[in-house]
Amino acid sequence: MDVGVLGQYIANGLMLGVIYALVAVGFTLFFGVLDVIQFSHGDVLTVGAFTALATYAALTLAGVASPWAQLAVVLLVAVAAMALLGALIAKYLVLPLRNAPPLNVLLLTLMLGAALRESVRLFYPQGANPKPFPRLLPADALALGSFSLRLDSVLLLIAGVGAIAAVHLVITRTRLGLAIRAVAQDAETARIMGIDFERVVLITFAIGSGLAAAAGVMNGLYYNEINFSIGLLLGVIGFSAAVVGGLGNIYGAILGGFLFAALQTIGAVLLPAIFPGLPSAYRDVFAFAAVIGFMAWRPTGLIAERTAERV
Amino acid sequence: MRALVIAAALVIAGNAAAQQKQTVKLAFIGPLTGGVSANGIGGRNSADLAVRLRNEDPKAKYRYELVSLDDECKPNVAVQAATKAAADNSIIAGITHYCSVTAIATVDTYHKFGFPVVVWGAVLPDITYRNKYAEVHRVNGTMINQNDVAAKFMTGLGFKRWVIIHDTTDYGKAHDKYFTEYLTKDGGQIVGRFGVTADQQDFTAELTKAKELKPDVIYFGGLTPIGVRIRSQMERLGINAVFEGTSGIKSDAYIEGLGPKLAEGSLSFIEGAPWEKLPGGLFFTGKYQQQHYDQGPEAYGPFAFAAASLLMDVIDKVGPNRKRVIDELAHVKDKDSIIGKITFDDHGQNIVPLISKYVVQDGKWVLWEDSDYAKGKRKLK
Fold it and tell me: Are residues B51 and B176 in the same domain?
C-alpha cells in the first residue's frame, strides 16, 4: 500500500471519528448529569440535519445566495432548534421519570427516536427518499498521487474538533460547566449548594442535542446526502463509542469515537485482504466485536468516570 | 320537475346497480416504509390506479378493493404480511413485492395457502425458478437477462476494468453472480469486488481501495439509497469511473438524491419495453397524473399496474375463486398490457426478451438510444 492510499484511509477515518465523537459526547453528557441513556439522540441528529435542509430551502427561496451566509444561518437554526428539542425532551420526558427505573427512560427515548424518525419520513416532503444536501463549502481538491483531500473535508474536520473543544472548555472553564460537573458528581449536594438542578439538566441536554445537530449538518456536508435513517446507526455507534470510552467521561467519548472509526476502517480494509472472499460488509461485525472485547477487558470504559458509585 | 325526478331515479338505479356488484379484494404488498418506500408507494399507487379505473368501468363484473400491506423490504415482515393476506379468504389474489429478499421469503407461504400472486418488481431469478409453484407469477423479468445485456453493452462500449460493489442480500449477491458470469464471458476484467451491507452509510474505505485498483467502471448491484451514497462518495474521493447500476437504481429518487449534476451519466438496465413509449404507457402516465398522488409511479409502477389489471381480468373471467384464478393464470399468453405482451412460462415467469438501457441526462433517465451519449454528443466518464 502506498503512502497516498494510507493517507486517504487516515483522512477518511478521522472524518468518521469526528462525527462519531460528536454524537458520543452527547450520550456521555446526558449520562453524566442524569445517569440516563437518551436513545433518541441519533434521531435528534436526523431531525437536526433535516431542519438544516429545510432552512436551506427557505433561504434559497428568500434569495440568500452567499454560501457562507447560508451555512451560518443553516447551522445556527439547526443547532438552536435541536437544543430546544433536547431541552424539551429532558423537561417533559426524562425528568418526570427521574425516579422511575432507568429501563423506562431507555424505552421511552427509544420509542421517541422511532417517532422522530418516522415523522421525518412522513411529514418532510418525500421524506422517504434520500435527499441531496447542499454543498456549502468550497470543494477545491488537493490531489497528491493517489491521495485526494478536499478543502471542505479539512474545514469539516477543523469545525468538528473545534466544536468538541468548545464544549470541553464550557465544561471545564465556566461557572455553567462547574454546575454541570457538580450535578454530575452529586445532584443532591449540588442542589443544597444552590445550583438550579433542573436548569442545569435542561442546558446539558440542550448542549448535547445541539452537538447532535452540528454532527447532522457535518454528516450532510460531508456525504452530500441525508436520509431519514442516518441517525439510527450513528446513534448506536455513538453510544458504543461513549461506552467503550467510559460513559460519563468526555475524553472517553472522543477516544471512543475515533477508536470506532479506526476499527471500521481497519475492518473494511484488512478483512477482505486477510480473508479473500469475505465481503467488507463484515467491518461492522468486526468493529462491534472489538467493542465487546474492549468492554470485557475494561467494563467501565477505557477512561472510567472518576466518581465512584455509592450504594 | 318531471325530468328532474326521472334523472334522480336513474342516478339511484345506477347506484343500486353498482352496489349490487360483489366486492372482490386484492392484496398489494410492497415496501411502504423504509429506504425504498418511494418505489413501494409508487407501486401501490399504480395498483390503486388500476383498481380505480376498473371500478369506473361499467363493464367490470365485480367491484374491486385493494388491501395494502407493508413488507418494509424485510423478509420477516413480508412473511407476516403474506400470511395475513393469504389467510384472509376474502382476498382472492395478490400483487406482491418490490424487494427480492421479501419476494423469495414469501413464495412458500403463498404456495402453502394456495394464494395466487403476481410479483410486480422483484428481479431475483429464484423467485419463480427455484420452485415450480403454480401460485407464483411475475410480470417483470429477472436479473439474468438484465445483466447479460448490461455486460455485452458495456464491453461493447470499450470498457475493460470493473470494480463490483454489491449489497450482501440475496438480491445484491445474485446481481454480482450473474454480472460476473456474463462480463467474464464478454471479456471484461473484474479487478475488485466489495460486498457491503444494505444500510451502510460510509463507503470511503471500500472506495479508497477501489480507487487504487483504477477501474473504468464501478458496477453497483443494489438499491437506490446506497447507490446514491456510493456515487456521491466516489466524487468526494475523486474517482473518475463510470457508475453502472442495475434496475435497482432506476428511480427518480436516485436523481433527486444526487442532484442532476452528480447523477449525470449513471447507467441502469431494466427489463421490458420502454413503456413510456408504448401507447399503454402514455395512457398510464396520463391517468396517474389525474389522480394527484403525492409520489410518482417510479420504475416499477407500470408493472404493478399491469399485474393488478391482469388479475382483475382473470377474476372477471373466472370469478373470485383462488383455484380457478391459478388455473387461468397458467394459460396467460400474449396478453396485452401497458408493459407489452405478457406470456407466462411453466414457472409463471413472464418471458420478456427486451431489456431497456437508461442513462441519466440533464436530471432525467433517458433511453440510451435517445440520449446524447449514444449520439456521441456526450461521453461517459
Answer: no
pLDDT digit string (tens) for A205-229? 999 999 999 999 999 999 888 989 8
A281 close to B168: Cβ distance less than 8 angstroms = yes
- Does the pLDDT of residue A308 top 60, yes or no? no
The nearest alpha carbon in chain B to A11 belongs to B204
Q: Are A281 and B200 within 8 A, CB to CB?
A: yes
Shared domain check, B234 and B314? no
Q: Which residues from B are below 8 Å from A130, CB to CB?
A: 35, 224-225, 228-229, 253, 256-257
C-beta atoms of A272 and B194 within 8 A: yes
Per-residue pLDDT at A310 exceeds 50: no
Give domain limits for chain A: 22-138+151-228
DSSP states of A95-118: GGGTTS-HHHHHHHHHHHHHHHHH
Q: Please name which of A208, A144, A132, A226 lies closest in space to residue A170, comparing C-alpha atoms.
A: A208
- ipTM of this predicted complex? 0.83
Which chain B residue shows the shortest CA-CA distance from A8? B208
Identity (one letter) of the amino acid at A252?
A: G
- pLDDT, tens digit (0-9, with 9 covering 90-100), for A88-99: 999 999 999 988
Residues of A in contact with B196 (CB under 8 A): 279-281
Rounded (5°) CA angle A169-A170-A176: 150
Residue B379 lies in a domain: no
The nearest CA of chain A is from the CA of B142 a distance in Å of 24
Closest partner CB to B228 (pick from A9, A121, A225): A225
Mutate to test the interface with B, among A12, A121, A148 (most CBs of B within 10 A): A12
Grid coordinates representing B342 are: 405478457
Separation CA A175–CA A183 (nearest Å): 12
Specify if B378 maps to a domain.
Answer: no
B15 located within any domain = no
* Whether B127 and B158 share a structural domain: no
Chain A to chain B Cβ contacts (< 8 Å): 113
Residue B381 lies in a domain: no
CB contact under 8 Å between B195 and A132, yes or no, is no
B160 shares its domain with B90? no
Chain A positions touching B236 (Cβ under 8 A) are 150, 153, 222-224
Residues B59 and B158 in one domain: no
- The count of domains in chain B is 2
Statement to judge: residues B71 and B124 lie in one domain: yes
Query: Please, are residues B137 and B329 in contact by the beta-carbon 8 Å criterion?
Result: yes
Residues B250 and B170 in one domain: yes
Same domain? For B107 and B192 the reply is no
For residue B86, the enclosing domain spans: 21-141+275-350
Q: What angle do CA B310, B29, A225 make, to 5 degrees?
A: 120
Contact A16 B236 (CB under 8 A): no
Segment A24-41 mean pLDDT: 91
What is the C-alpha separation between B14 and B16, in angstroms, rounded?
5
- CATH number of the CATH domain containing B61: 3.40.50.2300
Question: Tens digit of pLDDT for each residue in A158-201?
Answer: 999 999 999 999 999 999 999 999 998 888 899 998 999 999 99
| Nearest-by-CA chain B residue for A278 | B195
From the list B208, B225, B258, which residue is nearest A12 (CB)? B208
